[in-house]
């Protein structure tokens, strides 16, 4: 007879940003499978609702629980919005999220010599300021209610090693590592752990925009010989969200198939 493994996140409420696509959707599905209730947030509200539908809940109205889960539309880069989002989530579930996974992110690739200030600002606003605003709002909600938590920010291996055509993206992702380490130092006394994940190249709509020639070249450089699957990142998020990683904070976990080790 197969042994039933215990659900690792049975009493958790998880807020996932960027939940309408790629890694964020895979993370939402995986956390729900481990027993968490999921607040799925995306700039694209319809995509967030579709994620909630995939989670199996009947509800699809924004901000209304579908089974254990609910969808929210929000732009994480907009001042005041993440704080409002946290209030909405708290009102919906009667508690702050104990797991917060920031997956919302964008690219606006261009070589340094030609990059516009607008492309720089937009990527920093979503990828770095957005994570600052969400991390701050979530930490404030947890501290003021005396709850412990696990905050997981999706950075990138590019934040560590750089990448052609991505000065804005690499800077934003390097910033996420420093932000997360500092948050880990400040929030440990409140029982809140903060870690970042550095994915390599993962097959999602974001990498579908990369020319095939470039993807083929990258794939040849990956020791494991293939792009990652969003599920590979979701597995590590689940570990960092659960008490299995109870003594880990301030870490940057690479999920790259060995690329740039
Ligand atoms: N795919 C990869 O190879 C890879 C590698 C390293 C890191 N990452 C990071 O992982 C995260 C998820 O990437 P993905 O590949 O799943 O991309 P994706 O494009 O499939 O999904 C990103 C999601 O973020 C949402 N989003 C964008 N701007 C937003 C905003 N302002 N507010 C709220 N939501 C917003 C989008 O609507 C989309 O649903 C990103 O932070 C990305 O930088 C991806």
Automatic annotation (TrEMBL):
Gene3D superfamilies membership: NAD(P)-binding Rossmann-like Domain
Entry keywords, A to Z: Fatty acid biosynthesis, Fatty acid metabolism, Lipid biosynthesis, Lipid metabolism, Mitochondrion, NAD, Oxidoreductase, Phosphoprotein, Steroid biosynthesis
EC number of this enzyme: 1.1.1.239, 1.1.1.62, 1.1.1.n12
GO cellular component: mitochondrial envelope; mitochondrial matrix; oxidoreductase complex; plasma membrane
GO term, biological process aspect, one: protein heterotetramerization
Origin: domain of life: Eukaryota
Domain Ketoreductase per the UniProt entry, residue ranges: 12-205
Any one GO MF annotation of this record: testosterone dehydrogenase (NAD+) activity
SMART domains associated with the record: PKS_KR (SM00822)
Associated pathway: Steroid biosynthesis; estrogen biosynthesis; Lipid metabolism; fatty acid biosynthesis; Lipid metabolism; mitochondrial fatty acid beta-oxidation
SUPFAM superfamilies: NAD(P)-binding Rossmann-fold domains
InterPro entries: KR_dom, NAD(P)-bd_dom_sf, Sc_DH/Rdtase_CS, SDR_fam
Family to which the UniProt record says this protein belongs: Belongs to the short-chain dehydrogenases/reductases (SDR) family.
Protein name: (3R)-3-hydroxyacyl-CoA dehydrogenase
């Amino acid at each position: 007879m197969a042994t039933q493994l215990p659900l690792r996140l049975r009493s958790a409420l998880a807020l996932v940003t960027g939940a309408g696509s790629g890694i964020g959707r895979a993370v939402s599905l995986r956390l729900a499978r481990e027993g968490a209730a999921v607040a799925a947030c995306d700039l694209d509200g319809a995509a967030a609702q579709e994620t909630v539908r995939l989670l199996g809940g009947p509800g699809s109205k924004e901000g209304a629980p579908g089974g254990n889960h609910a969808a929210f539309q929000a732009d994480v880069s907009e001042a005041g919005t993440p704080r409002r989002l946290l209030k909405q989530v708290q009102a919906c579930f009667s508690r702050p999220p104990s797991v917060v996974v920031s997956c919302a992110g964008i690219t606006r690739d261009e070589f340094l010599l030609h990059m516009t200030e607008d492309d720089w600002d937009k990527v920093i606003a979503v990828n770095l300021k957005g994570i600052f605003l969400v991390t701050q709002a979530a930490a404030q909600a947890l501290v003021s209610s005396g709850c412990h938590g696990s905050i997981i920010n999706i950075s990138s291996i590019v934040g560590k090693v750089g990448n052609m055509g991505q000065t804005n993206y690499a800077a934003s992702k390097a910033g996420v590592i420093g932000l997360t380490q500092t948050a880990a130092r400040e929030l440990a006394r409140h029982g809140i752990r903060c870690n970042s994940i550095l994915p390599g190249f993962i097959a999602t709509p974001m990498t579908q925009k990369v020319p095939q020639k470039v993807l083929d070249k990258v794939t040849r450089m990956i020791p494991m010989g293939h792009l990652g699957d969003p599920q590979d990142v979701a597995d590590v998020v689940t570990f960092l969200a659960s008490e299995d990683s109870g003594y880990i904070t301030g870490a940057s976990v690479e999920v790259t198939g060995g690329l740039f080790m």
